């Protein structure tokens, strides 16, 4: 099998490359390094079944025969996609269409890294795949939310009209080693602040919730879904739900830090609650996450310590 991972130099994409290589596949990683880093794939430099191409997938491309296209290219953290709004819209729309076209041309399977952001600020809780979402279509987050919703629509259209064998994961907040230390996501911010002796910045009153999935659990779910017959979107995440204040407490405990908490304004349209209903993935794939938040933070500690030290 020759598989393409777009965005493979990013956090999740690089772990996916590792998992696919471990399954004896040949992996072509294509990324434009907008938010990804060569360090994430540096350990694969001498792997004969691994190849890196610097490529913006918004420009048409063809790397020859492929069996599977995993489309992970896109800024993912709110700080990144708000800074690169137009690029985010482009990669979700034009980039996704280019990747789908490559899959169609080579009769390859296709996998879309979609997101819980498709549910917006959800009125249904926990979120099931049947929920259509509550998204502000013109708010600041819409550049990400709507481009991913478009990407899902395009993927389903290629499945329906061109019979491409497509799969869609709605990924919920994932963390672990290689999460960029300065990407502004809550786990990277809190770990950096706790380890650097700075105050932890809690936005709003900290009562909003998120559900955090450790990266190895997330990738196991993705790989399992990729091998399934399911074409409709499937939630892949950890249903353990924490307020952001509880998340800050967990980080303080795991790091042993005595940092204080500082409250800052809540960003516009910040979802108040988020938790995946993973009944479908459990039933369909026999998959569920194994690593709880404190264990996952512990497992990420060494990475974050080194990252804080290197960027200081
Ligand atoms: P990341 O920012 O670490 O990696 C994204 C990668 O895509 C980077 O290598 C970046 O340079 C690349 N990229 C961006 N635009 C590109 C373009 N036009 N052409 C080629 N490469 C491009 O992000 P991540 O956390 O690894 O997320 C990967 C995917 O998973 C994204 O599609 C994201 O929407 C999705 N996702 C992630 C999470 C999460 O919690 N990490 C949650 C939901 C969905
Ligand atoms: N957040 C926070 N402090 C930070 C970064 C984020 O309180 O330093 C909050 C943010 O407002 C949101 C949650 O943590 O409610 C998760 O934010 P993140 O950017 O990680 O991802 P999101 O789930 O919003 O895409």
Overall description:
With 312 residues, the chain is an alpha/beta fold. Helices cover 38% and strands 17% of the residues. The protein has helices at residues 11-22, 78-83, 85-105, 142-162, 186-195, 215-226, 244-255, 279-285, 293-311; strands at residues 2-6, 26-31, 50-54, 68-71, 109-115, 166-171, 174-175, 200-203, 209-211, 213-214, 234-236, 241-243, 261-264. Strand 5 (109-115), helix 4 and strand 6 form a beta-alpha-beta unit. Helix 3 (85-105) runs parallel beside helix 4. The protein is globular and about 55 Å long. The model has no long low-confidence stretch (mean pLDDT 97). Uridine-5'-diphosphate binds next to helix 5 and strand 8. Nicotinamide-adenine-dinucleotide is lined by residues 6-7, 9-13, 31-36, 55-58, 72-76, 80, 91, 95, 113, 115, 171, 173-174.
Q: In terms of structural class, how would the helical and strand content be classed?
A: alpha/beta
Order of secondary-structure elements: EHEEEHHEHEEHEEEHEEHEHH
Q: How far do the termini sit from each other?
A: 42 Å
Largest sheet: 7 strands, parallel
Helical proportion?
A: 25-40%
Strands, total number: 13
Going across the biggest sheet, name each strand in turn: 3-2-1-4-5-6-11
The value of Rg in angstroms is 19 Å
Mean pLDDT: 97
Describe the protein's topology.
Blueprint: E1 2-6, H1 11-22, E2 26-31, E3 50-54, E4 68-71, H2 78-83, H3 85-105, E5 109-115, H4 142-162, E6 166-171, E7 174-175, H5 186-195, E8 200-203, E9 209-211, E10 213-214, H6 215-226, E11 234-236, E12 241-243, H7 244-255, E13 261-264, H8 279-285, H9 293-311
Parallel strand pairs: 1-2, 1-4, 2-3, 4-5, 5-6, 6-11, 7-10, 8-13
Antiparallel strand pairs: 9-12
Helix pairs in contact: 1-6, 3-4, 5-7, 5-9, 7-9
Uridine-5'-diphosphate is lined by residues 77-78, 173, 185-186, 189, 201-203, 208, 210, 244, 266-267, 270.
């Amino acid at each position: 099998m020759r598989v393409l991972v777009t965005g493979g130099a990013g956090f999740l994409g690089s772990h996916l490359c590792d998992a696919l290589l471990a399954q004896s596949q040949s992996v072509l990683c294509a990324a434009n390094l907008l938010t990804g880093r060569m360090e994430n794939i540096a350990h694969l430099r001498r792997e004969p079944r691994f190849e890196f191409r610097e490529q913006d997938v918004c420009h048409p491309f063809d790397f020859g025969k492929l069996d599977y296209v995993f489309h992970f290219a896109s800024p993912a953290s709110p700080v990144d996609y708000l800074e690169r709004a137009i690029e985010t819209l482009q990669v979700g729309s034009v980039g996704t269409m280019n990747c789908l076209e490559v899959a169609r041309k080579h009769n390859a399977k296709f996998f879309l890294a979609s997101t819980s952001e498709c549910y917006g600020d959800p009125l249904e809780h926990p979120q099931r795949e049947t929920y259509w979402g509550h998204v502000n279509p013109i708010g600041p987050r819409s550049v990400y939310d709507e481009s991913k919703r478009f990407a899902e629509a395009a993927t389903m259209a290629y499945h329906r009209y061109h019979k491409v064998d497509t799969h869609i994961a709605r990924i919920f907040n994932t963390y672990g080693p290689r999460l960029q230390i300065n990407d502004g996501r809550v786990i990277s911010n809190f770990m950096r602040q706790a380890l650097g002796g700075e105050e932890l910045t809690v936005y709003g009153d900290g009562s909003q919730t998120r559900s955090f999935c450790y990266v190895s659990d997330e990738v196991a779910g993705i790989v399992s879904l990729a091998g399934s017959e399911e074409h409709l979107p499937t939630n892949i995440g950890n249903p353990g739900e924490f307020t952001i204040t509880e998340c800050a407490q967990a980080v303080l405990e795991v790091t042993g830090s005595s940092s204080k908490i500082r409250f800052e304004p809540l960003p516009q349209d910040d979802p108040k609650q988020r938790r995946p209903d993973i009944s479908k993935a459990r039933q369909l794939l026999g998959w569920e996450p194994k690593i709880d938040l404190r264990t996952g933070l512990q497992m990420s500690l060494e990475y974050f310590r080194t990252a804080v030290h290197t960027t200081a």
